[in-house]
Queue: 4 jobs
Job 1
Amino acid sequence: MPEPQEDRGPVGPRPDAPRGAWRLVRGSVLLGLAWLLFGVVLTGLTLFALLTFRIGVRAYLHHIARFCARMVLLVAGVEVRVVNPERLAGRRTRLVAFNHASQLDLFVCGSFLPPYGTPMVKRELLWVPFLGLAFLAFKVVIVDRSDLGRAKRSLAGAARRLREERATVFIAPEGTRSRDGRLGPFKMGLFHLAAEAHAPIIPVVLRGARECQPMGTIIPHPGVVEVELLPEILTDDFGPHNLGEKRDELRALYLRVLGEREGRRSRH
């Protein structure tokens, strides 16, 4: 298991970022501009995908995701620093796990989406303006967690797409954003999907995203988010008998790399 790497510079809000009333005014204007640009661009691209009957959308989705995500982050003043990007190079079947503590996570992950990459999103997000229709138009992997039967069918469909498309699926093992910034319990969906698709897992550690935009806030702070790609985990030995153990091992790795302990807040 990898040790936490040496300090690569501060993450989170910039010390010289605007504060007080000026931050609210500046942030509101920039946020409005970002969402306006995002909405116009995404709506246009979504209509194009639908009018062309979604033919080939998976082949160019990563270009669209990178452009839209980087545009929003640029306007918000958030810099993304990727460590070990070569571990996500090329197109192949794999799962990318990431710790989820901020609304920025979707844009941060979208900014380095690889070819044939897609997030796994919960069905409830289909009702979000702009995003919901775009998720359908670009064939994003959607999981229905309303009951156990639908969840299993969603995972089976995702595993089939992983194998057939040689796709990369981004998934948050916690299932939802952390409310206090600490790493939450890991759900079993990632591990069932890994076992069924025989896909390796690349753990991705996000630092600074929550500090730039904590849970419940609307305006992000300009700053730096670090994305560290850890060595991939092979899943050839994943099976019904040990998935709980594999889940606990991965969560222990995240706790150690993040510098957290059970019951304590992260030091990052």
Note: Residues 1-5, 264-268 have pLDDT under 50 and may be disordered.
Job 2
Amino acid sequence: MPSTPQLKNLLETRGLRVFSEMIQICFAAYSEEPEKSVVINAIKVVDNLKRYCSNVVIFVGGYWGLMKNIVDRAIENGFQVVIVSPISGEETDFPEEAIVFKPGVDYRVRSVFMVRSCNALIAVGGESGTIHEIVAAYTEGKPVYVLKSGLSSDRIELLAPHIDRRALSEIKMFSDPEKLVEALANEVCSKNIIKRVSERKRIG
């Protein structure tokens, strides 16, 4: 079965050493078409990432529903996008600008591959699949940033900031897309940049 190291190798053969040079942000999003307000707020998240945390590779789990809106906007903004497709979506007409990884697994296993590849997860609204990715990210120790959307993923607020007593990571809830990205930029982007600079100095 394909694994996260195989995804890393795929990216590096495409000339992207993103696992050592860039920050990977996963988006958990509705697989169907949501209300217009949800789409607008998701696009605002992508636009603000360009302002606050541009050294980013964006990962999504497909190219349909709200995920398609995210991918299209991310490409417009010049982000490299990686689509980790479930087996049932492999025949989708994906955009040429995106890197498409087809691990040959179902939705739930695909989500684990995607989440394990990222530094943080942004959830912009969805149903059980989005909730599954939030829980997977938490279990893997990845910080989670949830934008309230009126969809079922808002219910995760009942479990925030920690799903269990182990406090493996922190789940933060936001109503404002810009505030969400500001928090991520301060807590994920800046820390990873400082860490990598320190590592280079030590090696050099």
Note: The chain has one domain: 4-203.
Job 3
Amino acid sequence: MVKKLFLISFVMIFSTSLCVASDFRDAQWGMSKEQVLSLEKTRPLYSSNESLTYRGKLANIQVHIIYEFLHGKLKSGVYQFIQNYSNNNVYLKDYKNISDLLDLKYGNPDNRKEVWNNKLYKEKPLYHGNAISMGHLFLESKWTTDTTIIVHNLSGNNNLISHSVNYFDKNVKIHDDEKVDKLELNVL
């Protein structure tokens, strides 16, 4: 009986140590492009030395799933929402739903911003979606884990709205302008 308990305990400890937490989807920072390709079940829409782009759904919303590489290693990932709506307030609803899911997974954010660049529609909630599309309102939330910085934002300009969740490897040094510029250029 003691041998069985010891064996069960050993198997549980050993199997737990084999479980590696993921940083973005099922991937870990530092993985090669080939390793990431093996994790996804479909072929990418776009592939280059610096990125892989897939089409998928997050919370039943169409997204592009973007893996970004620097010097051959995974350094960031993005869910870029591509669903289009005729009513701009639906983007706000999606943002709230995704924020709620991120809150469930990561807890309360480190910060949550609502920035009004122009307060024309601030007191008119029915026009907040239009305020986003005109660049009057910007929403952002940020979470931090042991290995990752997660930034969720909703912004707009010239009647176009951008909604994304960005995952960044915390080990990419912010002061290293070359790395940051290269990662930012890949998102554009």
Note: The radius of gyration is 20 Å.
Job 4
Amino acid sequence: MRPIARSLRILPLVLLALLASACSTTPSIQTDYNSAYDFSRARSFAIVEPATVSNSIAMSSNDILHNRISSAIRAALTARGFQVVEPAQADMLVSFLVTTENKTEIHEYNTGFAYRSCWRCGSWMGASTIDVDQYTEGTLFVDFIDPQSKQLQWRGTVSKRLSKSRTMEERKQMVDEIVTSVIAKFPPGP
């Protein structure tokens, strides 16, 4: 009897944990890297524009967002023990790019009902509701580049649905959280 009583007391906590994890909005982070590169020698970094390290013509059209991301990267790497230096002295160059994409999700819900008692009886009658959700998804690419070869050595990517209704503080907090979670994956582990 006691094991059942204990299980019944724990059950609400387990259900709450499952519900919290199901409702989590933490975006998924993907990383890729050059496995032959020695990341252990990276102690310092400099944030550079994408055009500095490649022929990319990508330009930032939002200086406010650009400055938020730069500050967040600087803070996250400094908190992990890396030192900010000028590009000429850096062990790694850090670059980032933000893209947006308009997306559409279509959901169909069957709101009708039907009853058949045999294969020859009656026809199915029902109704469907279709919801169309249009939104913008933003993707942040954070690149770590070898300063000598100018070759990409590590990339972290994260995508998240954007909302126009966030306040300035909420947007800053979102950028800080996303950048910190991407930087937490650098350098790659064994």
Note: The radius of gyration is 24 Å.
